């Protein structure tokens, strides 16, 4: 693993033997501002797997924050362990002290395996923990606007592909109905879509089907990708779009909330070769980070939702750029994000008057 060749500004290894903390914080870029990204608590098989995830996710956060128009860089924290077994107050507070030691270069929030209540504990040791509970003055569950943003991206994809920004009459296959996927299902049902779902957690599926009688469930992702549908929405962990999945996917659009959906760089072209419109994951799932960023200014849900609604317009811009430049939407999105990091980030080289 070439950490120094990854383009990251900083990678920090955090260890506290007494609490059992083993964590990695990766800061990809601070060109646009402090590196904001959630903390993932996950039982990685190896330390190398944890580092690789931190590197990939932090880079994606930099691109996500840039494309969302935020004055934030990209970072990510990962804690190695089973959150159901290993998460303790002592461990979370030890992690918070490491975050504080970075002096604001990295701002943390929720991710897989961490929740608002966990960030409340982390915040007892650092000024740089966000995505806190409403009771503690935070923005609450950021999955609400993450799902809202994915839905806006899906509406834009429908507009680009079928000429109407509606999923009414379309079948949407949602892989993963946890924090984000369940909210997305609510919007899809309300919009008139037919929805089929799956999840590794039977309880999550049961909650969704109990709420929406018309939603159909299948056994697993392998069955889901072979079920006839118009839109495929990966909303679980990354790596959902491998070569085998793309080869059998019946969808005309892929748009979901999961991070790092493409297994390798060539996957975007494989989708394009099959005529499948891909809505870049870090573009459409930016609603959550928009919600968390708003918390830094005194959270206002209506304001955050209005900002997240712009994902619709940005997605249309990305699709149009991809068509005009003859590239995939993934390449077009990367170019737009990189250009903003270059053009706005360079302003930091203009020296301002010294302040006391």
UniProtKB/TrEMBL annotation:
Catalytic residues as annotated in Swiss-Prot or TrEMBL: 76
Ligand binding (NAD(+)): 176-181
Keyword presence, GTP-binding: no
Keywords (A to Z) from UniProt: NAD, Nucleotide-binding, Oxidoreductase
Domain Glutamate/phenylalanine/leucine/valine/L-tryptophan dehydrogenase C-terminal: 140-349
Pfam families membership: ELFV_dehydrog, ELFV_dehydrog_N
CDD domains: NAD_bind_Leu_Phe_Val_DH
Gene3D superfamilies: Leucine Dehydrogenase, chain A, domain 1, NAD(P)-binding Rossmann-like Domain
GO biological process, one term: amino acid metabolic process
Molecular function per GO: nucleotide binding; oxidoreductase activity, acting on the CH-NH2 group of donors, NAD or NADP as acceptor
Annotated InterPro entries: Aminoacid_DH-like_N_sf, Glu/Leu/Phe/Val/Trp_DH, Glu/Leu/Phe/Val/Trp_DH_C, Glu/Leu/Phe/Val/Trp_DH_dimer, Glu/Leu/Phe/Val_DH_AS, Glu/Phe/Leu/Val/Trp_DH_bac/arc, NAD(P)-bd_dom_sf
Family: Belongs to the Glu/Leu/Phe/Val dehydrogenases family.
Listed name of the protein: Valine dehydrogenase (NAD+)
Taxonomic source organism: Klenkia marina
């Amino acid at each position: 693993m070439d950490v120094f060749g990854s383009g990251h500004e900083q990678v920090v290894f955090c260890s506290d033997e007494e609490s059992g903390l083993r964590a990695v914080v990766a800061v990809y870029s601070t060109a646009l501002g402090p590196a904001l990204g959630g903390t993932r608590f996950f039982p990685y098989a190896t330390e190398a797997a944890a580092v690789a995830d931190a590197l990939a996710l932090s880079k994606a956060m930099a691109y996500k924050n840039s494309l969302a128009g935020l004055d934030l860089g990209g970072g990510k924290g990962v804690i190695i362990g089973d959150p159901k077994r290993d998460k303790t107050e002592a461990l979370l507070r030890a992690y918070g002290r490491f975050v504080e030691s970075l002096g604001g270069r990295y701002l943390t929030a929720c991710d897989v395996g961490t929740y608002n209540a966990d960030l409340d504990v982390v915040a007892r040791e650092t000024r740089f923990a966000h995505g806190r509970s409403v009771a503690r003055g935070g923005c609450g569950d950021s999955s609400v606007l993450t799902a809202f943003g994915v839905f806006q991206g899906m509406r834009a994809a429908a507009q680009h592909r079928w000429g109407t920004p509606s999923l009414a009459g379309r079948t949407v296959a949602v892989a993963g109905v946890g924090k984000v996927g369940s909210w997305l299902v609510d919007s899809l049902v309300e919009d008139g879509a037919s929805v089929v779902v799956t999840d590794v957690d039977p309880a999550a599926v049961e909650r969704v089907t109990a709420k929406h009688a018309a939603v159909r469930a299948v056994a697993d992702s392998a069955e889901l990708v072979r079920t006839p549908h118009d839109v495929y929405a990966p909303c679980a962990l990354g790596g959902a779009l491998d070569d085998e999945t793309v080869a059998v996917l019946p969808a005309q659009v892929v748009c979901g909330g999961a991070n790092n959906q493409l297994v390798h760089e060539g996957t975007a072209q494989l989708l394009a070769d099959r005529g499948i419109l891909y809505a870049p994951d870090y573009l459409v799932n930016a609603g959550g980070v928009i919600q968390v960023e708003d918390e830094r200014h005194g959270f206002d849900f209506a304001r955050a939702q209005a900002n997240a609604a712009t994902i619709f317009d940005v997605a249309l811009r990305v699709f149009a750029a991809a068509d005009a430049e003859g590239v995939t939407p993934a390449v077009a999105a990367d170019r737009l994000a990189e250009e903003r990091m270059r053009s706005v980030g360079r302003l930091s080289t203009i020296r301002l008057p010294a302040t006391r």
